[in-house]
Structure to design on (97 residues):
């Protein structure tokens, strides 16, 4: 099975406290679900329609593992902590073979 990549871009951050609570819960939840953080933070550059906001790239063993991580109770708790504190664009893509 090919690896999968979770790409999360924050389009806007409305509440830094909620973001901090989300980060505190989401990192451990995704790590426990097999996610390996490859990159996170602000982009060094953004081109075309890109925005300079927090972006996270996480590797999983498969698309199914990434989707299971998203649906896990621990990650859902992190999402509840974020509670409209940010607008995000989250995608899970399969690695090229």
């Amino acid at each position: 099975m090919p690896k999968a990549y979770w790409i999360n871009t924050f389009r806007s951050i409305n509440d830094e406290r909620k973001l901090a609570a989300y980060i505190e819960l989401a990192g451990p939840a995704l790590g426990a679900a097999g996610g390996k953080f490859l990159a996170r933070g602000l982009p060094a550059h953004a081109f075309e329609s890109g925005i300079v906001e927090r972006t996270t790239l996480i590797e999983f063993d498969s698309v199914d593992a990434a989707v299971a991580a998203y649906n896990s109770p621990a990650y859902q708790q992190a999402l509840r902590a974020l509670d409209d504190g940010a607008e995000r664009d989250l995608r899970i893509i399969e690695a090229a073979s």
